[in-house]
Amino acid sequence: MNNSSNTQVTNSDKPAGHLATLALGALACVSALLSTPAKAADIKLPPVSVGAGIRTQFESTNPSGGGNTINDFNLNNARIYLGGSVTENIKLMFNTDYSSASSDLQVIDAVARFEFSDQFNIWAGRFLPPSDRANLYGPFYASNWNVYEDGVQDGYPFIVQGRQNGLAYFGTFGIAKVSFGLFDAPGTLGEGEVLTSGRVQLNFWDAEPGYYLNGTYYGEKDLLSVGLAGQTSAGQHAYTLDALLEKKLPNGGVVTLEGELSRYDELGGYGGIDGTYIDSNGWYALGAYLFPQKLGIGKVQLLGKYGAARFNDTSGPLPEYEQTTLEFNVNYLIKTFDARLSLFFKSTELDAALPDTTQIGLGLQLQI
C-alpha cells in the first residue's frame, strides 16, 4: 500500500512551517523581555540600614613632677554600622570600629538577633554581654566625654571594646528587664572555660526597650532605673550596681544623675597602673544639667563626674593604691548623639607617691 500521499511533506510546505516557528519564538522572547522589568520590580529586598560615626579629640596632658606637656590629636573611634531584617523577627547587626592603637578595623558587633516579643529575645554572635549600664551604652551614648578612664566603669573582661562571643537571652516583664548569657571566658582562665553573665534592671518611670542602653536621653524620657549585674567564671567574679535618674523639668531643662558601685574580684578590672592588679573596687557619681534655651544652633549642658577606685592584690612591685578621677564637661549639643562638642577637663590623682595627671581638651562626635 502506498501511503505517500498521507506522509509526504512537499517542498512548498517546509518554509511556511519554519517561518511560523521562528515568528512564535521571537514573539515569546519579546514577551519575556517586556515582562522582565515588571517581575524585577516585584522583588522586595529587606531594608538595610547603613550608618557611621566618629569621635575625635584634641587633648593637652600635663603630668605631675615637672614632666613635659603632651599635646595630641586623636581619632578615638571611627565606626561603620550595618543592620537589616531577614524576616520580621530575625535581624542582623554588623558594626566595625577603627582601633587607634593598632590602626586596624575591628569587628565589634556581629549579631544574629531573634526578637519575638518583649518577653523573649535571643542574640548570638559577638556583642556586649549583660553587664553594667556604662558598658551597654558605650562611648557614643554616654553623658560624659572621658568614659572608661576612672577604674570603675565597664571593667568586665572583653575581646574587643566590651564585647564577647556568645549567646544571650533578654526580656521585659513589667518594670523588670532581665538578661542572661553564656560567653567565651578570657584565655587567662584556661581553655574551654565559659563566662556566665547576667543583669536585672528595674525601670520605675519610662521603659527602655531593646537590649543596648543609653547614658542619657536628653529629656526624651523621664527615667529612674537601677541595675544589678554580675559575671563569673572559673571561681572568679565581677559585680556592679548602677543607677540613672533623668528628669525633664517644667522649664524644659533636663537633670541627669548617674552612679555606679563596682567590685572586680580577679575577673576583669582595669589591671591598675601596670596591668598586674587583679582585685579592685570603686564607685563614681555624675551630675549634669541641660539648659532649655538654644544658644545658636545647639544647647549647652554642664556636667561633673567624680570617681574613686582602689587597686589591690598585685603580683608586681608597686603598692596597693587609690585612684580618684575628677571630670568637668561643657557640652554643646547640636543634634544630641549625632552632633555634639565637648570641652573637657580631667584630673587623675594616685596615692602611694604615684604620678598624677591633668588634661584639658576638645572632643567632637558625629553620626549619620
Would you kindly provide a written description of the structure presented here, covering whatever features stand out?
The chain has three helices and 16 strands. It has a 16-stranded antiparallel β-barrel with strand order 1-2-3-4-5-6-7-8-9-10-11-12-13-14-15-16. The relative contact order is 0.12. The longest helix has 30 residues, at 13-42. Helix content is 11%, strand content 54%. It has helices at 4-7, 13-42, 133-137; strands at residues 48-63, 70-85, 90-99, 104-115, 121-127, 164-173, 176-184, 194-203, 223-233, 236-248, 254-265, 277-295, 298-314, 321-335, 339-350, 357-367. With 368 residues, the protein is mainly beta. The model is unreliable at 1-40 (pLDDT under 50).
Strand order of the largest sheet: 1-2-3-4-5-6-7-8-9-10-11-12-13-14-15-16
Number of helices: 3
Helix content: 10-25%
Rg over alpha carbons: 30 Å
Order of helices and strands: HHEEEEEHEEEEEEEEEEE
What shape does the CA trace take?
A: globular
Distance between the termini: 88 Å
Q: Which structural category fits the helices and strands?
A: mainly beta
Strand proportion, as a percent range, falls in over 45%
Any low-confidence stretches, pLDDT <50, length ≥5?
Answer: 1-40
